[in-house]
Fold each of these.
Amino acid sequence: MNMFTRRTPTSCENLLKLTVDVTKSVRTVRPGVKVLLGTPQTSRSVGSLAVRVRFAPSPTGQLHLGGFRTALYNYLFAKSHGGSFVLRIEDTDQNRLVPGAARSLEDILCWMGTPPDESPMKGGEFGPYTQSERLHIYNKYVDQLIEDGHAYRCFCSDRRLEILRKEAARNRTSNKYDRRCLSLSPTEIKEKLEQGLTYTVRFKLSPMNEPFHDLIHGAVMHDVFELEGDPIILKSDGFPTYHLANVVDDHLMKISHVMRGVEWQVSTPKHILLYRAFGWDPPEFAHLPLIMNSDGTKLSKRQNDLHLLSLKEALYYPEAILNFVSLVGGGFEDKEYSLKRVMHMNELVSRFQIDKVHNSAGKLEMERLDDLNNVCLKNHLKSDKAGLVKKCREVVIEGLDHVDQDDLTEELVEKYLVWGQERISNLREFVRPEFMFLWVPPDSLDDITTDRDLLKAVVDLFEANPDVKNFQSKLKAFCKSSQLKFPTVMKDLRILLTGLAEGPPLKELIDVLGRDVVLSRFKKLI
């Protein structure tokens, strides 16, 4: 028995009465959608059924952090209950497909440590897992809905539908289809089909006066019958819309819990009505809150720096990304907020609880990802120093065409990594201008202000005094006798070594570069 049939009329009536006093008992999350406050958040026990969840992206581009959060929370929920994580590719919008995107989606999930148990590549008992390969299945269920009177063919032209949209806009009313084709007789339908007229199939909505239960938001009310028109479930190109395909697939694939973005919450009543029309029990629903940019704007697929593939190419570690995403939106029991420690996947699984997920939007603050990646980099320097040194050497050779590879020994790279581990968040930062001096000596005196002959005397003083403190003491005396400003000379020495007016102090540069390299650079330019 599902959650709709087991409620008593009294409890349903009481819930409906709550919608009257909006100021006290209802939270409007978007136009037409109300969350009823104070309602019990009970649900089917996950112990009574096999937990199966799905991540169902469209292959229209690279997976970004917002989409991955949905995948991650599905994965964590499934694994925390010993269940299955299914990847399904929803490619019914053929006009927006990007070649290779479906394969890339699965590859990046595996790289992130969230591999699907069933997928287009891996296969499984309930395949195929790509919707364009399931058209015959959808057609069968569309025919069933038409035969049972729950759906009908719509022959209205795009021009007529556009007129209806304009009239609704002019009258400031909902753009509801007027059901003109619902009244067509079997004879009229047959004649239109024989004429070869194109058509769509619409689902016949019915009143839904009770709220549905959301595992995150509680009882949610949205009467699609009053606010929306009959939705198209089969397009004129023969492909189903999301509304039909996801309901049929979730049922046939035995999906127990649907966890998706909150933007789909408004469509859930339509899906529940479809389940009823088929005579199926709906799964549990949980709508994850939005993730926003730090400035409060929505994430966009056009923000390339948010794509997981871009982050991978920028040498961010998957465990850093995992922990970064887990900081946005809650969902964990006894998980400390920390940018100094990263949790492994088994820890995230053991701490995940769906009732701890926030119901309000969270913001991405990308500097947190840098902090977490720095933690991972330092961890790898301890656990896999040789591998990290090798990768760093490859990054330097790739990023700097004029670097002397013979001088780029593993010992040298390791030394620079140990020094730079507190200064960088990923290896690619090591070839930025501020770190160029590590790999390539400067070749210009343009920014030097001290007289060249005086600088030569300073270099001679450095060569004669191996102890840095002793050198600095004598340099101060030299500057005083030569009427030079000590800070200016120190700045010029830094420029000689790094090409930078600002940067690490001289003593630190001597320590990291080594005395021989420092003396060589001084003499080369003076």
Amino acid sequence: MVSFKCQRISIVVLVVLGGVFLVLSLAGRRPLTNLIDNQIKQTVMLRPGSDTFSKWVDPPISPRDDMYLFNITNPAEYSKGAKPHLEVVGPFVYKKVELKTDANVSGDGELVYYHDYEKYYFDENATRAIQNTTRLDDVIFIPNIPLISVATLLSQQNLPDIVKKIIEGFIETYEESHGVLTLTLNGSVHDILWGMPDPIMAKLHDLNLAPSSNFSLQSNGSTDPAALTAATTVHTGFADINDIGTYSRFHGRNSSGCWGTPEANVINGTDGTQFSPLRIYNKTQPVSIYNEQLYRSVDMEFVEETSYSGITCYSHRIPAWALQNVTFNPSNAGYYAYTYNGMLNLTKCSGGIPLFVTKPFFLDADSRLTANISLNVKPNKTLHDTYLCVEPYTGIVIDGHKRIQISVQTQAQNNNITGMLQYLRDAFVPIIYVDEHGSITRDLKSTLRSSLLIPVQVVHVLVYVVLAMATVMLLAALTLGVRVALLRYRAIPEREDDRRVIVREEEITSDSEQYLSIDGASKGKFYDAAD
């Protein structure tokens, strides 16, 4: 049997070791976490010559744009005032190559300057894998946006009278020689997407009122002249990791310039591919992106913790208040939010063309928006909402979908341009819906796991293992201490009985006429010899 002394030594050893492990798990957690944070900062920071910088300049992820168009299937009836019957055609899948050229870091290492360029390439195999009903050369009908643009332009008070007369005279002459202008524009899917000659656009271009003589819904390559001359500037994260990837200037500008207040015009946020890991890890802090197509910055809020390809990530979505009208969110007055909920008014930003952005199929928007159109597709939050899934330790977006729909506002008008405009139905008619999405590649996922995520997980597991060992040792010391105390308590009566027996034996020895008969060690009875 182990002696009390050995047991006491064991208790002391367990308490000391448990205490040491407890201190290591608690006091050592912060230095280890700081070490990991510093390693992550050094890894994700945009430093020339680093692997991160090279991947930022030439991303290994190729975003894909799935483009859907809305075809008016009753163009003749629509031109007479009927409700447009819309058929969704597509998707037409395009691979998007995003390039950053002439990238240079400032002398203090805080900013990187570059020029950006985008190019789209049609992916026929990917398109055919999804749908095989509509091709690029199929003809579709959309609202006559050039005509609607002219009508809107002529209604502006600041347009010189001489320009108005030139446009009105051109429309009159054109209709005399080519017939009455219709309320629809028809062309192949490819031409409507990427450009087709249009007489109205050509005239507006001659008057320096349009950037091109062609009409198109998309541009292949940058159409912003500033993108070719003025550099875009972003923060490298060297001075403050919270600023990594955020724009300092976009195409030389720090303001979008088309909204109603300075706050609305501020260019803030990243391009949506990288965020500060500290901001992401703090779930209560929204992250900001600047979207060139929307001409504005948008906050995205944490929604849930999920995973993609086995990697934990935080899902962020656009909050409802970002697209609410001024009745529900007065701060959106700077974005001219005077119409329905769930819309962004791009009229000022698109040169006077009444274009409006919503989520696809008017998801989360006012139900009245579909009252004057016939559209059979119902919105689905899983399929039609924008979201970004961000890896929290690095701030890298590993999966995401940016989904927007563009509609044109049509209104009946009585003016001197053409009598056809009086037949326009008051409506917001969808034209195009784009789902831009991309996800982390297999190689990048492997690199992310091996260089960052696994070491982070190992450290966290190690901390908890040491804490568990400390807990086990302290519990073992406590258990052993209780056991020793109980044994000592039980041993006290036994020692007292032994002392009493010795005393009695001394008394009996002095009296030869008595003898001792002990009936059991615990009883200690004494009998007289005469008995």
Amino acid sequence: MAGGVDAFALLVEELKSDDVIDQVNAAKRVNTIALAMGPDRARSQLLPFLRQCVDDYTDEILLAIAESAGTLVPALGGNEYAHTLIPLLESLAEKEETIVRQKAVESLVVIGKSMPAQNIQNEFKELMKRLSAGDFFPSRISSSGLFATLYPSTPAAMRPALRKQYEALAKDEMPMVRSAAFQHMPKFVAVLEKDVIITEIAPLFNELSNDMQESVREIAMENMVEIVKFLSAEEASRLFGQFFDNVQNEKCSLMRVNKAKHFVQLVSAMHPTRPIRDQVPAFIHLLASDPEFEVRNAAASNIGTFCEKLDSATVLNQILPVLKDLSQPDDQPVVQGSTSPTQQVREHIAENACSISSVIGRDPTISTLLPLLKLFLGDEQIEIKRKVLRTVAPLVETLGSDACDQHFIPEVLKMAQDVQWRVRLAVVETLPVYAKHLGMELFNSRFKDIQSLQAVSQLAGVVPSSALTDRLVQQIAIPLARDKVTNVRIAAADALKKCAEKLTGENPAFVRDTIRPARILCEDSDVDVKYLAQSALAAIGFWEYCFSLCAQIVVGVTAAVPAG
């Protein structure tokens, strides 16, 4: 290296530092050091040294080495030398510290994919044998993550033996080994033949999903989600339908949470062999009767997508009555800004309720769904109101302009006057939805004041001052500053603030005579109106002071310059 500094010697010195941070940083630079050393020295000096480090350094440093090792293949001379990393990563994969072991396995997978087929069968296969037969459980845990890398290049005649090796891990006496094998099952399934999945993996799945240890079987639902992707509806129903039904009574709450979380995806994978309509009672049980609120909450988040899979009659007769019961306000008072389990479920219902309208149609929406939405809009909790207001697009589209104007827009205009600014903001954010579905004539008649003031705020910085003074301020902003709708006055105060900032320097007389008199907004009953109005006056005062100061400086300079 330049200056006579040897890269390898520098690495050794930094790893001997008393500062752990320096040691970790040095370990993270292993790839750079290897490139500087060259392939031959990296293989002959660096790799043996790093292998020795495994027994001498802390887990934090070993984690950095394990991560760096996965990037070393190019620096060692390319794919044909990838197998030279196996001794180092094997020693790291046998460590008890979970994160070190996992990172070593990840790096082994990376280098395994880069190896020539012959090296995989020779070097990688032997690695698998050693790890799988290890006396201590960490090595057996690590081996379970390597089957998906080795299997594709394994000759057909040798594949049954490899699968038996995996099965042995899945039936290991140590729960942690069984759990690791189960956790890596989806990746292994992705490279297996379909008949093997049906005849070997499915029975193994059912055995592990009924394991005595909760830490093993809790992975089952997540695994099912991945495995059914490779099966037909008939095969998925036959192999996993009974397990799916039994999870309803599973003591492990995480399994029930995952069932509720993936319910729609899984019942869709088994449809039409197991019709989705027949799964409504199971969904309702998760939503309304499960003792764990996390389960009910997960089910509630899927209400909209589940209802999209059902017919109108089923939603009206079976789903909506349950939603009405669950939507009633909690008897226990909830502090604003906090959430109770019941409120979280109600928030999810509020967020999904509008989407149900597209399933049941206009008339049932008016008679059945709108009362529920009005209940939410009248709720004391801000977030419940916002959830409805920000998801109104399906509702507005289903109702059409006339029905929406008659039955829903009055509720929206009430929300535009809500004391909480976040509720009013939700109304403003969804204005494009109403503009799209109501038609511009009806939209302008209902929302033109708010829209006009927004336009004033946007145009204040770009249009000529004459346009502001002649039209935007006097014809729009000033008259609407006295509007009875709070949301309109807020927009007016904001528009006047921006106009004042624009005009103070160019037309101070107009600001003094026209905009300043609007300071009546500073005494408004609404705190947001008052704040914006006071900000406008503060801005006016600041710019007036600046221009006055500049004028004084100009006068002073002029007086000091000799005539001529």
